[in-house]
Amino acid sequence: METMPLTAPAHETTVPTLAQQYASDNYAGVCPEVWAAMQEANAGHALAYGDDAWTARASDAFRTLFETACEVFLVFNGTAANSLALASLCQSYHGVICSDESHVETDECGAPEFFSNGSKLLVAPSTCGKLTPASIHEFATKRKDIHYPKPRVVTITQPTETGCVYTIDEVKAISAACKEHGLLLHMDGARFANACAALGCTPAELTWKAGVDVLCFGGTKNGMAVGEAVLFFDPALAVDFDYRCKQAGQLASKMRFLAAPWVGMLETGTWLRNAAHANQCARYFADQIKGIANIAIASPAQANTVFVNACDEILERLTGRGWRFYTFIGGAARFMFAWDTDLKRVDELVRDLRECAQG
Ligand SMILES: *Cc1c(COP(=O)(O)O)cnc(C)c1O
Fold it and tell me: In this structure, is residue 175 part of a structural domain?
């Protein structure tokens, strides 16, 4: 019997690459700092299931960045981070107040309800995806009888799914409403870094110092291949969360490869640089298309997203030129910029949009 060669046979790669597109910040690859950290973590053996030095180092990097001894858990994606975090804050008869645009409501296939064994999402109408203290107050007080799920948690998305950023004062006002009604506050921070970059504030100021109890901090859209972190600012809320992750299939056996990317992001300041670049590109795009007739910017470009209102005909022409964008979120064409966005390519999009808008 022939033995297999130890190295793969050399062959030409035939996988095509895509020219930069702005349909999603998930189209971008892995940033160099993350790639380097993963390569370093790949040297030799390490303990499994999070008992390794990279996981300890990443957890410490979060504690340093957030200036507090938070509990840190690393999971594969944002749906798991959000739904497991919410499940850990709720009993099955509880309710979670969220905005009608929120990812937990519109894009997680019922995972928050599934992992919490039935906690109900209490969906509030919103502008630009933002919850208000008034809507929290309304949900918290509208029913006191036993027939309605008991409100227990408020979840806000920072920045929102439609690209708006809550100011620190807005987060504080929401947290005050939560305290008044005995509710916990969860933040979906799939693009948390973009919010910090937009506000120029520290992660601590935007979370526990403003009353946030649990944060899901997104790594994937910030320049990692895979990975989100769940941070509990009150350790009492984190009890047994490791079991919940394992049961849900979210405990990485080779955890060092979920942890090293965070070391590469946090210790070098890359998390903030990547986000600031993406935000700047969104602002640049918004500025460039401002004067174009027949189109309008649908929401303020506060983070790394720009939504464009245009008739179907214009959007079809743009698709015909090979551009990709989503129209199922926020009711307009979404353009989303990432850590690697090339402004020359954005100029091509601007040119095509201008020409398509002229007919
Ligand atoms: C992308 C995103 C998530 C995470 O989605 P996954 O695909 O599960 O990683 C969560 N919340 C918001 C607001 C997002 O945009």
Answer: yes
Domain C-terminal end among 209, 239, 266 = 266
pTM, to two decimals? 0.95
Q: Among 79, 109, 157, 162, say which to mutate for ligand 1: greatest number of ligand atoms within 8 Å of CB.
A: 79
Look up the domain containing 135 and give its range: 32-266
* C-alpha of residue 108 to centroid of ligand 1, in Å: 8
* Tokens linked to 69: 């001894």
| CB-count exposure of residue 117 (10 Å: 0-12, 13-18, 19+) | exposed
Q: For residue 67, how far is its CA from the centre of ligand 1 (angstroms)?
A: 25
Ligand 1 atom with minimal separation from the 104 CA: 11
In whole angstroms, give the CA distance from residue 186 to residue 65: 19
The domain that contains 324 carries what CATH number?
Answer: 3.90.1150.10
CA 5 from chain centre, in angstroms, equals: 42
Burial of 242 (0-12, 13-18, 19+ CB in 10 A): middle
Backbone dihedral region of 190: left (phi > 0), alpha (psi from -120 to 50 degrees) or beta?
A: alpha
The pLDDT score that the predictor gives to residue 2 is 56
Q: What is the pLDDT of residues 132-189, one digit of tens each?
A: 999 999 999 999 999 999 999 999 999 999 999 999 999 999 999 999 999 999 999 9
Based on the fold, state whether residues 251 and 286 are members of the same structural domain.
no
Pairing of strands 228-232, 214-218: antiparallel
Written as one letter, the residue type at 214 is: V
Domain boundary among 266, 301, 320: 266
Ligand 1, residues at Cβ distance < 6 Å: 77-79, 82, 103, 157, 161, 188, 190, 220
**Token output for 338:** 């990432």
At residue 157, φ and ψ (nearest 5 deg) are -110, 130
**CB distance 115 to 85 below 8 Å:** no
Instruction: State the pLDDT confidence band at 14, using cuts at 50, 70 and 90.
Output: confident
